[in-house]
Amino acid sequence: MTVSLAAVSWAFSGWWADHWFELMAATVSALDVWLATRRSMISWPITILASALYAEQFRESRLYSDMLLQGLFVLFAIYGWWHWARGARATGEVLVEKPVAPSLLRDVAIGAAGSVLLGWWMLKHTDASLPWLDASLTGASLVGTWWGARKYIANWWLWIAVDVIYVGEYLYKHLILTACLYAFFVPLAMLGLRDWRRALFRQQSV
After folding, report:
1. Residue 152: phi, psi to the nearest 5?
2. Shortest CA distance to 201 belongs to which of 148, 153, 158?
3. What does the DSSP 8-state code read for residue 93?
């Protein structure tokens, strides 16, 4: 059986009409994470743009915790932009920090408590899809974003775990492009971990 060029063109046109916005949001988000692995200051304004795009995408998918998360990402991006610029060397290089364990445990505890409260509220007051999973990933993502803004190398470990779980959630919600994006984020986070480790080693060797 042969498939005509017209049929393929029609199918692609229909797919593009349904997914062009998600594709645009995914592309901007991929650029954002890649820039973060390079410790580029430009990553923060790109974060703001990506968050605005995905806020609308998640609103349409009824993933309200994720939608709320995008607004918080914007606030964290503004802080991260300022903090990175404030702590950069004269050359513009952003320095990596290695926090003490109590700080990390405190942030994880705050994120977990916030996830429980958000999940309960979404369950009781909205028609949110997957309220507990969505809220848990939101809490973990906020911790990861905070650690990234603080230049903590541990943010990449957390993102590797969170991104793997996000892939499953988005496949379940039929957000195929977004699931592929988060699958791509996993090796990017590994790359970020490697590069930030190297940067930290160079800093400690000076």
Report:
1. -80, 125
2. 153
3. P
Q: From residue 80, how far is each of 84, 118, 190 by CA, in Å? A: 6, 24, 21
CA dihedral sign, ordered 33, 129, 142, 112: negative
Whether residue 174 contacts residue 135, with contact meaning beta carbons closer than 8 Å, is answered with no
Place of tokens 């062009």: 20
Q: What are phi and psi of 21, to 5 degrees?
A: -70, -45
The tens-digit pLDDT sequence of the chain (206 residues) is 444 554 445 444 665 566 788 888 888 988 998 999 888 999 999 999 999 998 988 888 777 877 887 888 899 899 999 988 887 665 667 888 888 899 999 999 999 999 999 899 988 888 877 889 988 998 999 999 999 999 999 999 999 999 999 999 989 988 888 888 899 999 999 999 999 999 888 888 76
Contact 136, 119 (CB under 8 A): yes
